[in-house]
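Friendly challenge for the regulars: who can give me the structure tokens for this chain first? No prize, just bragging rights.
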Amino acid sequence: MIQRIQTVYLFLALLFTSSLFFLDMAQLASTNSTYLLNFQGLVEANKPTELLMPATALSILLTMAATLTLVTIFLYKKRVLQIRLCALNLGLHAGLSIMIYYFGKAAAREFQAELSFDWPLVLPLAALILIVLALRAIGKDEALIRSLNRIR
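First reply, four minutes later:
Bragging rights claimed.
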């Protein structure tokens, strides 16, 4: 059912993942300017509309992770599929964290800037933990349903 605890976990994971669309993930400071890393790529702090280093793969992965989390919420009647999609979602969120780190390091190397990650870097990891909790809760529900079918 949609009012289960795993729905709350998945909804919080969706909020954490979707908030990355609106937050800057890292700051790069060089001698002549400051750069920001967001979901679109690297932008200069003074000119946020001009992309200096596009991160198309990061935005695609972020969109896929958020969409898959939303789809997983509404598959509450198909628990086995929901478990599989949660496992896939774990991989996407782990890849998202790695990709944010990679793009930050690559941009710092290319622009010879000092890199400092902001607190939104923790959000994919928190979503990862919430998805693991949802996965465990879905597994418990599936085990309960199977045990009830065995009694009949």
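The mean pLDDT is 89. The longest strand covers residues 26-29. Your move, everyone else.
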